[in-house]
From TrEMBL:
<feature type="region of interest" description="Disordered">
    <location>
        <begin position="1"/>
        <end position="20"/>
    </location>
</feature>
<keyword id="KW-0479">Metal-binding</keyword>
<dbReference type="Pfam" id="PF08240">
    <property type="entry name" value="ADH_N"/>
</dbReference>
<dbReference type="InterPro" id="IPR011032">
    <property type="entry name" value="GroES-like_sf"/>
</dbReference>
<comment type="similarity">
    <text>Belongs to the zinc-containing alcohol dehydrogenase family.</text>
</comment>
<keyword id="KW-0862">Zinc</keyword>
<dbReference type="InterPro" id="IPR013149">
    <property type="entry name" value="ADH-like_C"/>
</dbReference>
<keyword id="KW-0560">Oxidoreductase</keyword>
<dbReference type="Pfam" id="PF00107">
    <property type="entry name" value="ADH_zinc_N"/>
</dbReference>
<feature type="domain" description="Enoyl reductase (ER)">
    <location>
        <begin position="7"/>
        <end position="344"/>
    </location>
</feature>
<dbReference type="InterPro" id="IPR002328">
    <property type="entry name" value="ADH_Zn_CS"/>
</dbReference>
<feature type="compositionally biased region" description="Gly residues">
    <location>
        <begin position="1"/>
        <end position="10"/>
    </location>
</feature>
<dbReference type="InterPro" id="IPR020843">
    <property type="entry name" value="ER"/>
</dbReference>
<protein>
    <submittedName>
        <fullName>Zinc-dependent alcohol dehydrogenase family protein</fullName>
    </submittedName>
</protein>
<dbReference type="InterPro" id="IPR036291">
    <property type="entry name" value="NAD(P)-bd_dom_sf"/>
</dbReference>
<dbReference type="InterPro" id="IPR013154">
    <property type="entry name" value="ADH-like_N"/>
</dbReference>
Amino acid sequence: MKGLVYGGPGERSWTDVPDPEVRDPRDAIIRVDAVTICGTDLHILGGDVPTVDRGRVLGHEAVGTVVETGSGVSGLAAGDRVLASCISACGICEYCRQGTYGQCLGGGGWILGHLVDGVQSEHARIPYADLSTYKLPERVSDESAVLVADILPTAYEVGVLNGQVRPGDTVVIVGAGPIGLAAVVTARLYSPAHIVVVDKAESRLQAAKVLGADTTILAGAQDVLATVREMTGGLGAHVVIEAVGTPETFELCTTLARPGGRIANIGVHGHPATLHLEDLWIRDITLTTGLVDTFSTPRLLEMLIAGQFDLGHMITHRFGLDEFMHAYDVFADPARSGALKVLLTR
């Protein structure tokens, strides 16, 4: 079969790879029907995630059809249509028993496209399949479901819940990529008074407005700090969500929070950022980081099925699986392509 293989920083190829096989009784093999590319994949290609070995098939967001199950899988059968979660969970370790699946000690956590071959391929092995997949009803489209594999729960758990967004808050989201846009959608669930989105690309700011942002700030053309302070009476935001993963954006976020405010870091950081505790300690700032656990995925799927999320604007480009190399080029150059989320289908 074919898969998108990481060859080292800056190197990728759509090439022949071995067909996946059941290695553990709790494994399932899926035929990949729809898959997408994540900003984290770009961080891997940029050399920011050194734990990814050369030769690894990338990808951790897919919808597929079960073709084979191990003897220990009880909840799935061949022909089932499933969402493959970005997080795998053994279900029995200390962290899994607390619902903190991202920190699984039993061989799970974020492993797909990281420590084991991922889902940017024609078929994929899903470890701990009973706990790491979700059956999908026919009325949920592949392209809506695939957004619940990672970006929606990540934005919700690591951004909105960690940031403790509350009714009446002013929320500033720095970064209007897919994760930042998903933060706009899920922050709306808590009735903030104002959602402000900051980005360098006008096309992404327009998408943020469509999805519910009240105000957008074009970084580089506007003074972000001055604009936020002006709209908040000089105080700053109640919640700032970092959704980029660079030292510059992180340090900007620490200036935008008001005294007593919360900063929720979602971005994947490959380089050190300066933490100005000499400024932050006296302002009672709470800073959180995190890897998604996906404990919210069942509830988010229920809300998607009920029509509470309109995610149609998130996918801007569609490709066949054999166009993976071009899809990466498009996704990696959003300023030129206008890409938000790209979808590749069988």
